[in-house]
Design a protein that fits this description.
Elements lengths: L4 H14 L3 E3 H19 L8 E4 L2 E4 H8 L10 H4 E4 L3 E4 L13 H14 L4 H8 L12 E4 L1 H7 L4 H23 L1
Antiparallel strand pairs: 1-5, 2-3, 2-6, 4-5
Length: 185
């Protein structure tokens, strides 16, 4: 699966709605990572198609962070920026059009994960949730840069055997090849 900006934005919309439409960017990035992690734990599949990196403030989804920082160069017109906007330096908020957004990219399983992540972590402020991500076994201190965490490595850290992690990683690569083929048509 290639990065799905629309689905990732809809995941962010769900969390923003839970917080009244506005949230600290760091907190939102951590919630999205924890949802991705939970999907990998439960199903061995990425929700977003994004890649995981370890950064000074914990684990994040790489392209999602670019969108939140407004540094993404390949954003879709009806994707993240249509639903989510910056509010000052540290906050993100729903756009006026996002209140009516149909969350059609999210399956029932996705929604269950988002609800569980919110129930477990939504009450935390950005620093508490950041500190929590520093306790995860996949976090490595990058000392001011970022460290990519390959899907196979992350799956093994999450408890999948070597062969299961290998098979799931190969499956993801095949899905990405199919997605790339369809995008080029």
């Amino acid at each position: 699966m290639l990065f799905n900006e629309q689905k990732t934005a809809q995941m962010a919309v769900c969390f923003l709605k839970q917080q009244g439409g506005k949230m600290n960017k760091l907190k939102l990035m951590k919630l999205l990572y924890l949802a991705e992690r939970e999907s990998l734990l439960r199903h061995g599949m990425s929700m977003t198609g994004d890649y995981v990196v370890s950064m000074d403030h914990g684990m994040v989804l790489s392209k999602t962070l670019d969108l939140a920082r407004e540094t993404a160069i390949d954003a879709h017109q009806d994707g993240w920026y249509a639903m989510i906007a910056r509010n000052g330096q540290y906050d993100l908020e729903l756009t006026s059009s996002s209140h009516d957004t149909e969350l059609d990219e999210l399956s029932q399983a996705d929604r269950a994960i988002l609800k569980d992540v919110w129930d477990r972590f939504g009450h935390m402020d950005q620093w508490t949730i950041r500190n929590h991500t520093h306790t995860l076994p996949e976090w490595k201190n990058p000392h001011g840069t970022s460290i990519s965490v390959p899907p196979k490595e992350l799956l093994k850290i999450l408890g999948y055997s070597e062969s299961e992690a290998e098979e799931l990683s190969k499956q993801r690569e095949k899905e990405e090849m199919v997605d790339e083929t369809f995008q080029s048509l």
